[in-house]
């Protein structure tokens, strides 16, 4: 997924070129401009001459990918809540690989752009489902770890893509190689079971027990008397269909406030994260080294997440807001550096620091959001939040190009976004050491409060 997200950074990179004036031998003696690329580099820019008035098509292809992510989040999230995590994930991954090969062999820019839209559609769908599936395979006490490792793999994927791009220069070969990894992951994913939490919330208690026995067997444990509470399953199964759906995110008073705040937090995280990352190819120096640095700089962010979000004095809420504010502050500091000082390195370091901080905030937002939504509507909630995240992603490719107005404009946008989202995130409740709600009834009312209190006692007992 990181390969597909970063693909346009290398295959859409513009090499050095100049424009020659050539006289066409004719009666009118017309002058024709001819673009000559002086750098030995192969990309969609050199193949379809996407320069000057056509240069916008590179950013357009990147935005189409994120537009596909947006639609995928809307469609796939609620769909997986209804028919299951596993079938939606496998179908999306299979189609993403198919459309990825269409990108590699696109005969024209129009086909290329359409394929990027379809790849983004599938990528956005499986991104939320994949994350939720990972979380629901393990107990809540492991959610911070599995969520962090998932984000860490994305950061490592960015760095590996830079290495792959350095080794494979032709853009079609690079696209084919990057997409071929999806074939391997699809074959590995076929063996994955369905989420036991989803099965349990759907009242399919027998199947949930089978999955748990399978997990125990693969872990080397022998389970002879594993039985889930049928009473809870029966209680949950009947109203589940009525409780799920995007409408509940608007109607339910608790979820409505959480969703509005989380949507803006996700939007800001995406705008700053992808804005800084996609601008790596335009920075001075080796484009491959820049992409690798913007990926590797995320790695220290995840141990920081693991440390802070599990401390009672920090938790999820304060950690996420603090990292967002620090990211906005780092971007603001770049605005204070004069253009004529030649201190490009200082601007780069501050940009990398901002990327590190927003990566930490982005990772916490994933974990935090999955804990704020009940199981019956978790994928729908994550899907809507990720939808607003993709709006930021659609705008991100165009923000670095705003430096034509003034060099400080992109970082000003990133700074204001990070600071405002950090302050707004403080409105959310803390979820550290708290139980996870399974149904909407557990969020409000005396019955739900008693259920959560009992879960809290069980949670502390398990710890």
From TrEMBL:
Q: What GO cellular component term, any one, is given? A: membrane
> What are the UniProt keywords, alphabetically?
Membrane, Transmembrane, Transmembrane helix
> Does Signal show up as a keyword for this record?
no
What gene makes this protein?
A: slc22a15
Name any one GO molecular function. Answer: transmembrane transporter activity
List membrane-spanning regions: 58-76, 88-107, 113-134, 146-168, 257-276, 288-309, 321-338, 344-368
Could you identify this protein by its name?
Solute carrier family 22 member 15
State where it is primarily located: membrane
The keyword Membrane belongs to this UniProt entry's keyword annotation = yes
Q: Which PANTHER family match?
A: SOLUTE CARRIER FAMILY 22 MEMBER
**Which InterPro entries does the entry mention?**
MFS_dom (IPR020846), MFS_sugar_transport-like (IPR005828), MFS_trans_sf (IPR036259)
Indicate where this protein resides in the cell. Answer: Membrane
The segment(s) forming the Major facilitator superfamily (MFS) profile domain are 1-433
The species is Takifugu rubripes
Q: Which SUPFAM superfamilies match?
A: MFS general substrate transporter (SSF103473)
Q: How does it sit in the membrane?
A: Multi-pass membrane protein
